[in-house]
Amino acid sequence: MAANHNGEDIGHMRHALRLATRALGRSAPNPAVGCVIVSRDGRVVGRGWTQPGGPPHAETVALAQAS
Asked: The pTM is what?
């Protein structure tokens, strides 16, 4: 089944990848990860990246922002 992507999806993924660069070389032993949480109406409601030393993870930071 082929994925159905639009320009907004690609833009949000690029945003997450840019966020991940903030953790490069600082997040060991975890990987550098960026996370963007988007509401159903297309608004960014949370974003994060892996913090120095690993925890908290990007997803945890973004979810805390979104709530």
From this structure: 0.86
Residue 8 annotated in active site: no
Alpha-carbon span 67 to 62, nearest angstrom? 9
5-46 residue pLDDT tens: 788 999 999 999 999 999 999 999 999 999 999 999 999 999
CA proximity to 16, closest of 56, 58, 63: 58
Report the candidate in 66, 52, 67, 50 with the shortest Cα–Cα distance to residue 16: 50
Choice among 15, 30, 59, 63 that is catalytic: 59
Q: Could you give the C-alpha distances from 6 to 33, 55, 62, in angstroms and in order?
A: 22, 32, 22
